[in-house]
Amino acid sequence: MEKTGLIPAAGIANRLGPLAFSKELLPISFNAGKKEPGLKAVCSFLLEKFQRAGVKKVFTIIRKGKWDIPNYYGDGGEFGIQLAYLMMTHPFGVPYTLDQAYSFVKTSKVFLGFPDVLFEPEDAFSIADAALAQKAPDLMLGLYPVKDKRRMQRTDMVHFDTQGRIKQILVKPEATDLQFGWIFAIWKPDFTVFMHDYLKHDIAQRQKNSIQAELHLGHVFQAAIENGFAVFGHLFTDFGYIDVGNPDDLAQALREYFVERL
What we know:
nine-stranded mixed β-sheet; two-stranded antiparallel ribbon; alpha/beta; Spore Coat Polysaccharide Biosynthesis Protein SpsA, Chain A; globular
C-alpha cells in the first residue's frame, strides 16, 4: 500500500498575531552541521519524518494567500519526496481541509502530521507504522503525555485500555483526568472513505441549519470509534511535543531547537 503524507496548512495563526509570512515557515532551528548552514523552518521537521518513514508523496493543503509555502518548499526534492499542493474549499476545520486530497489518497495509507507541531523521536512515524502493522487497526494515533492544563485545553485527550485500544477522545476538554493526547496519525483507506462520507453528511447539516462551528479531527475519530473502527494508540511516554502555533510553545521551541543547539 502506498504511503502518502497529508499536511493541513490552511490555518490563519490567530494565536500568534499578525505574521509577515505563514507560520509553517517560522524559523525554529539553525542547520549548523550542514555544508551550507541556514535557518530551518518548522515544517521541515515534519517533512524529514515523512521521508524517514518511507513516505514518497505528500499533499499540503493551503488557503488562498499562503503562496509562500509552495514558493519555499517547491516540489519537495530537497527532502526526497514528491510534494504537491491543494487548495482548501470549506473553512470548517481540519477534516474538511484534509478531505480536499480525498481523490488522491483514498487508496493510500495516510500519514498525518501538523506542520507547526514538533515531536520526537525522529522515527516516530516509523515506530507507529510498525505498531499498526502488528495490531492491524484501521487507525493508529501517536500519543504523548500532556502535563499541564494549558496544553490539555488545546489537545484532544485520549482514553485507552491496557492493550492500547482507544475507547474515547475528548476534544480540547476544559478539565479531565486523562494524561495523553494524540499528536499525529496513520490510517488505512477505510477511514479515509469514512471521513469523506461523514463530511458529506456534516456539510448537509451545516447548510440546512446554518452551522459555523469548527469541526475537529478528534470529532471524526470519535465517530469512527462509535461506528466500530479499530483505533489504537502508540505511547511515546519518554518524549514530548511542542505546538509552535501558540506563543508559549514557540518560545520553548526557540530555546530548545535554536539557542541550545547553536
